[in-house]
Amino acid sequence: MGDGDIVLEQHGQILHIILDRPDKKNAFGGTMREDLALALEAAGRAHPSDDVRVIVIRGEGDSFCAGGDVANLLKLKENEDGAALLELLARGERVVRAVRAFPGPVIAAIDGPAVGAGLTLALACDLRICSTRSRFGMAFIGIGLHPDWGGSWLLAQTVGDARARELSLSGRLFDAAEAERIGLVHEVVGDDDWASTVAKRADRLAAQAPRTMALIKETFNAMAGRSLDEGFTRERQAQHAAFGTQDVAEGLSAFVEKRRANYEGR
Questions:
Q1: Is residue 84 part of a domain?
Q2: How far, in Å, CA of 259 to CA of 240, rounded?
């Protein structure tokens, strides 16, 4: 698919979607956003007649997903290309919509870091199972940016407003034990047992009544308070405003150059 950084494997009624850019910790680049959305949308059209009942999203190598490609964001900032940023946000929002719209369960199988857009992708999923070595962070503030792809809305829905504010404002990394304690993940599994546990959970879900699970998912989506589309709109405006600051240029440059950022509030 596209650049080849999204790989599909089907095992019975379970579709595995693999983020396959391990040299970049599976950060989103190239056509990954579009390819992931297309794969999810196609699986939704196949459910359940072609036996695509459950989706598992995982990363190749030692990471789930490190978010967006910061080097690419720095290029956009250097060119002051706000229009290109908005296009990237729209592609990411399409991914989240496709995850939420898929009629069956979507499992985020997390092994290693899930930060920034990677954490947002995991939050969009119905279930999150992680290994003990996994790490999490709503890390946007570390490069001067605002959460996007619906991350603000999804995080608050998952862990509550107070905790979501703290995690978003600090951008700090936290471990699997804390993620389980605050309700961000449903299960933490020892590293050696993680893959087999994900497979067992997926098999169990695939054995349930698929149309009823679709109705359950629709119900929870409808009951979630303020709409995700409203969240997208607010985030898009805020992210575009943040992108216009000089601090973003400094944050992106510092990340690429592996140094501490010096923000001046401009």
A1: yes
A2: 25
